[in-house]
Design brief:
Helices cover 40% and strands 21% of the residues. The chain is an alpha/beta fold and 304 residues long. The strands form four sheets. It has a five-stranded mixed beta sheet, with helices on both faces. Strands 10-7-11 form a three-stranded antiparallel beta sheet. Strands 1-2 form a two-stranded antiparallel ribbon.
Amino acid sequence: MGFTLVQLRYFLVAAERGSMTEASTELHIAQSAVSTAVHNLERDLRVQLFIRRRGRSLTLTPAGERLRQQARELLGRAHEVEREAQGSGESLSGPVTVGCFVTLAPYYLPPLFSECTRRHPGIEIDVVEAETDQLVQALTAGRIDFALTYDLGLSAEPDLHCETIAHAPAYVIVPATHPLADRDGVELSELSAEPLVLLDLPHSRDYFRSLVAATGTAPDVRYRTRSYETVRSLVARGLGYSVLNQRPATRQTYGGGEIAALPLRDAGPPLAVQLASVGGVTRSARVRAVREVLRDIAPRSAEG
């Protein structure tokens, strides 16, 4: 191996700053030292990492983009090795960025934060709440360490490694005054003549519509919203029924109405709640620790 960790560090700072001059200021060294280190790194790897234009910011080449993510991981791992060798590896500290599917956030994030604070007070968790496609983009771009999401839309991503930590069966919600509200279960075909209030998120919308279509009827989608709680409030007002997966602990909605949640007898397999990450990437000790906390809290969080 011809390159050094110092070269990688100088390259990474220059890539993130977009300037050799700004990198030298941050590193408190001469600009010539940064330029020489990057030049030698390009020579050792036999690739061009930057496109250099006079008077303009540095632009990463495709090879440079790939190396930036690899350098960040390698330098992070080197720091962990140093800390563990010095005997300080028992207390984990530093940032972990978690992506979370928007409707899972209210159920998983509060217990995740509280349990991580108790077990690993030095770990700083940042969260990106988004939909599946946005989480996949954030994963592949290296903006998040891993994502907590449903398995919807993930099967088409061969570069992702997914681990199921919980299951979330579909259920129906109807107004508390609905004739079926006191039942201990229902089939979707019993509601086929009523309007459907659809949680209108990518992949989720197709999943919910497919559940209704599987009964042999076309869903009558009367209202659409991207808000989980708005779905519940519309149903509580008697504007239709809906199908959801995560179940709140209360029947009360933000709008003051009440809904009844009914198990579905014909819903098929439950959705898997998964931890998704880019395959082949070595996870830091603190990332592994946060994932372990999520595994531990998943059974309780999945129940709502």
